[in-house]
Amino acid sequence: MRERISVMLATETKTASGGATDTITTVCDRWSARVEPLAGRERYDTDQTLAQTTYRVTMRRRDITQKHYVIWHHVGGDRTLDITSALNLDEKRRFLTFDCIERSV
What we know:
The protein is mainly β and 105 residues long. The chain has a single domain, classed as Thrombin, subunit H. It contains no helices and six strands. The chain has strands at 3-14, 20-45, 48-60, 69-73, 79-87, 95-102. Strands 1-2-3-6-5-4 form a six-stranded antiparallel barrel. It is globular.
């Protein structure tokens, strides 16, 4: 576990015109994390090809739930990962594992 990540809270803020903007606030930075690509796939939608990559991120335990959090992966091109599930695999509360999907740009 030697990759750098930032865990961020994404909140949606309503604008005066009725739209919405995402505000992202850093919750914590971690220098000891493991980011592993799990699978990649492409799909064809509205005359374009969309790529989707899933990742598994493991870090030392911190009280983070999956709702509204994103992970910023600083190595390998600065990727933003949306958390889809949070797991406590060893049940000893030492490590937290997230399954994530790379946010498309």
